[in-house]
Amino acid sequence: MSFLMPFIKRLRPAYFILFAGFISYVLTISVYSFLFRHTPTRNIFDLQFLYGPLVKNIVTLNIYASPGMQFTGHRLPFIPYFLSAIAIIHNDIIFAYVVKNLIFYSVTFIAMRFWWVQETGISKQLKLVVVAFVAFFPPLVFWGTSPDADEGYIIHFMATLSIGLFFFERMELRRKWIMIVLLGFLNALLYLTKSSMLLPSAAICFLFWLKSAKLKVFSVFVVIFLSSLIFWGLMNIRHSGTFAITTSLDGWNLYKGNNELTLSLYPPYHLDILDMEKLLPFKRPSGMNEWEFNDAARNKAVEFAMNNPMDELRLIGRRLFIFFFEVRRNPLYRGETQFESPVYWVSAIWMTVFRLILFGSLFGGVKCLSRHIRGSTPQLSRHAKNTIIYFLILASYAVPCIIGFAYERHLMPLVIPTVIYFFSTAYPELCSSPAQVDRRSDHSV
């Protein structure tokens, strides 16, 4: 710890308190989330969502594959390799929680700190309320700290990238290109975390072009993003002989969300029950490779939708309800209820507030764009650009969930972007006259 002493001595008392508070907060929520896990987990090799066995094979056998070599392209590489690096140092689940969260919550902390300094349109008291709302949102904390749920990483990537977009013009000129490159890499890692992030990552490349109005900025994001696509495609060629930029379980997940049993379980229960209880009628035929199986499962899902249009419409309606209206959790296991713990009641209250902020963001955004369309100036204001940014992030993120399935955890990456957008753009639109909004937006550029 001696190497930290010069750094600590240079800290102002207020900064030292902030630093100590941040470390205490991260350690507390890490332990809290670990204790709240449903299944016992001793080390990183026991992690869920297929990550534990994959990490074990990477660390012990140096192969990127599931047990029995059934799958080699079932998980995008960022999380497995990140967890493998931690496991090599010390294969302990608490250690994984702490290391992972110290890194990723630091990234989110820096982004939120940037927002705090650059957002001049609201009071410090309101900023404190925003920070407290985000910091103590129970499902956001649980999923944001998880080392084996994709959302445990996507939450932090989306928060940082959205704040970078909303406040792009506030970056210091001498550091702007460093930040652009770093944000470009974060956008690539967003895609390399989960295949459904392909669409949001592509949209974010375009949105940085919209915000910066510079082809050079767009080029940086596109080059880094395309490099990540090629990297994953080459990994799949090496392991299975197939170039693919998605995963070999995408078709299976689509089938889980669109089959004859889905309506009977969803949304009261998590659709992983179909896997755990081996209920799905379609099985992987012997001798079929993982990509053929992926295509076959996808075809089964499309076949179900075409043959049962009314059932498919009901499923779409349920997914839309979960995505935009539901405030209760989705039980993970058969027999669970939505309010088994007092924490779930608190979560429902937080979710209700988030829904109000979400609807306020949608209403304020529509009002902003409508006012711009009625105006005489063709140039987009900062508020109009931020609205387009938020709507495209929301739409690109929502599409895979509406097509497949959505749960409470899938919504968590949208919490911070929605809250920041609401208070930086939608809230002024709803509370101010058009002239006041124009002056505030133009002054902030």
Strand content: under 5%
Which class best fits the helix and strand makeup?
Answer: mainly alpha
Query: Mind describing the biggest β-sheet?
Result: none
Helix content: 55-70%
Total number of beta strands = 0
- How would you describe the shape? globular
**N-to-C CA distance:** 43 Å
Helix count from the secondary structure assignment: 21
Give the mean pLDDT: 90
The Rg value, from CA coordinates, equals 22 Å
Low-confidence stretches: none
Note the run of SSEs as H and E.
HHHHHHHHHHHHHHHHHHHHH
Task: Write the SSE topology.
Elements: H1 5-10, H2 13-35, H3 51-61, H4 78-89, H5 93-118, H6 124-135, H7 138-145, H8 151-166, H9 176-191, H10 198-212, H11 215-240, H12 250-257, H13 262-265, H14 273-276, H15 290-307, H16 309-324, H17 342-374, H18 382-403, H19 408-411, H20 415-431, H21 434-444
Helix pairs in contact: 2-5, 2-7, 3-4, 5-8, 7-8, 8-9, 8-20, 9-10, 9-11, 10-11, 10-18, 12-15, 16-18, 17-18, 17-20, 18-20
Question: How does this model look, in words?
Answer:
This protein is an all-alpha fold and 445 residues long. 69% of the residues lie in helices and 0% in strands. It has helices at residues 5-10, 13-35, 51-61, 78-89, 93-118, 124-135, 138-145, 151-166, 176-191, 198-212, 215-240, 250-257, 262-265, 273-276, 290-307, 309-324, 342-374, 382-403, 408-411, 415-431, 434-444. The chain is globular, with a radius of gyration of 22 Å. The two termini are 43 Å apart.
